[in-house]
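Agenda item 2: magnesium ion complex prediction
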Amino acid sequence: MKNPQNLSSLGEFGLIDRIAANVGSAAGVVTGIGDDAAVTALTPGMQLLTSTDMLLEGVHFRLDWHDPYRLGRKSLAVSISDIAAMGAVPRWALLSLAIPADCPLELLDAFTRGFLAIAAEHGVALIGGDTCASQGGLVVSVTIMAEQQPDLIVRRSGACPGDDIWVTATLGDAALALSILERGFDSAQPPNSDMQTTCSLSGVEGSDFLISRLLDPTPRTLAGRMLAESGLVSAMIDISDGLLADFGHIAELSGVGGTLHLDALPTSGAFRAATRGLPAFPHQLALAGGEDYELCFTALPGHREKIAQIMKTCGIEATPVGIVTTLSGVTVLQSDGTPYNLQTPGFNHFI
Ligand code: ADP
Ligand code: MG
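Presented output:
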């Protein structure tokens, strides 16, 4: 009987061939995987947008929590989300992998399946990458290329005082899921020792939904693109580090500030059920939890109805959560009008 294949019998080029075997031809790809560089053709009149992201085992994901199929999906999803936030059309991706020598081939196959599945869902073609051995954990780096007409690209810098601040779908689901995973499903303890109320998430209806929001986020490609092409939005960003931090980037680059209303923050039914009885915790997660991969954008209050119509077409909700102010700084107000002070400002790698 032949030895079962593994990474060392396959080698670097065998693995690249294995990935390439699942990649078909695609629009705009003149030369794909296999040459020294890929050759692509932009649609005439479009500008090229490029973004790159790294995912490190132990920092961004744990293989005991993240199944490889959904890890493959998320590796590309986070990059597609950046493109959505610019209002652009994702086209091509490069996938670079540093792989521990003992990594099972089945894991890499499932990863590739997930990556190529979400690529197909969003019209992205895999056109190349790099493959090497890792002395540490698995490292995934994805570069995405996209295109859009120059006048339709939405930046972080366009917000104006008086604009509404909007967010798509719901906030805090992924951060709640992470805290569930960190504590284990059977724990009856809340994540912070300073919280008196306890809650058990084991058996909470909707915990699968929450976990999938963390492990398999949905980039808002169509919403971002339609908002951009409508010309209604003045600034946009995707929420990866929490609304407070990411709206903070819009505010800084636009030279404005903002007021967010705590009671307006949209949360899912599963989120509310799981955090019932924990007064401070839900607000922290929704404001600063991170990994929502929703869009935050700004627009004149007069555009509310048109924006609601666009969202309906996209099949997602969007909610106005605050107002852009002339005064710099971002303030969060409680329902009684008093400021809310957050303990943690959002995720930051070096703090
Ligand atoms: P070079 O030595 O010139 O850098 P490589 O041997 O690294 O070329 O890559 C050969 C081809 O395979 C290139 O087209 C490259 O883009 C592609 N490639 C390498 N790794 C990957 C990967 N993980 N996914 C997709 N394509 C890849
Ligand atoms: Mg190479």
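Discussion summary: The longest strand covers residues 89-100.
Owner for follow-up: CH.
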